[in-house]
Amino acid sequence: MAAVIAVIGGTLSMNGVLGASESDAGVDLASDDLAILPPPPTLPVLEAPEPTEEPTEEPTEEPTSEEAEPTEESEGGEESEAAEESDGPAAAALRKAEKFPAELIDPDNWYLTLPTGEEGSPDTVEGSELDTYDSEYFRLNDSRDGVVFTANAGGVTTENSKYPRSELREMKGSEKASWDGRSGTHVMELDQAITKTPSTKPDVIAGQIHGGDDDVMQIHLSGNELTVKYADGKKDVPLDDAYRLGERFRVKIESSDGQVKVWYNGDLKADLPIFGAQSYFKAGAYVNSNTSKGASSSDEGQVVVYDVNISHSG
Fold first, then answer.
1. Whole-prediction pTM value?
2. In the chain, where the domains are located
3. In angstroms, what CA-CA distances link 127 with 92, 98, 133, 139?
4. How far apart are CA 276 and CA 288, in angstroms?
5. pLDDT of residue 42
6. pLDDT for residue 293
7. Dihedrals φ, ψ of 205, to 5°?
8. What's the rounded Cα separation, in Å, for the pair 203 and 286?
9. Predicted local distance difference test score (pLDDT) of residue 87
10. What is the C-alpha separation between 59 and 68, in angstroms, rounded?
């Protein structure tokens, strides 16, 4: 092939310098005129030997401390979230009562006031009687993981109240609990849902600190506004301004150093300069409606308590 190219190159060069001769005129260099040239010699094709691969050791990459740290943080975060979930409603839902509501609370810490009995002197259940007590006002829910407190608007009231209740009152052994909000730390944690309000004046109190003859603060639902009420109901702090009946929530109430703090579903919502010198916790259904407000006697308020815990320190 190299010889052919040399001949052609030479021919073209000569033609370019001397001009085309008469004998070369009209000759097509790409035609059969080139057949007079001898074919190029055939060269043997040599196969290159395949390279021999030497075994190499792949470097083992050890994770650096920077790479390892995110994994540890991720695992720690998952464990932390799991721990938080285990303390919330999911964990409480695992608790089931066999027969009686008191299986889901500590009956030694409470006595129960009912909307039945004589006006000014309602029925109460306390001590060992609470262990096996149930009625339409204090019963297990269908899934047996919550206590249903129910009070009707036409029910009887205590001497100092105009409204009926199915409500727990804190005890200390066989004595009524009484503590000072200016000393020590006093905590009540509730996992609950308000499931029914009276159709007339739809108000229900689901938890409170009471002090002496009056309340210090209340977890209060009025219509769909869930608030912390204090100052004899004249002031409030919103917890949820669009609460839906049956929606489960967690609330933590802490009284210490003359202050009351309230957490709602883990978020601090209120920090108030209030206290009671003779305080105690209450939980259940305290219905702020009665027949004088136009409610039917059978109109009800209802709260389901899944878990309630109290503690005192200091």
1. 0.72
2. 89-313
3. 24, 20, 11, 17
4. 22
5. 52
6. 86
7. -105, 125
8. 9
9. 53
10. 18
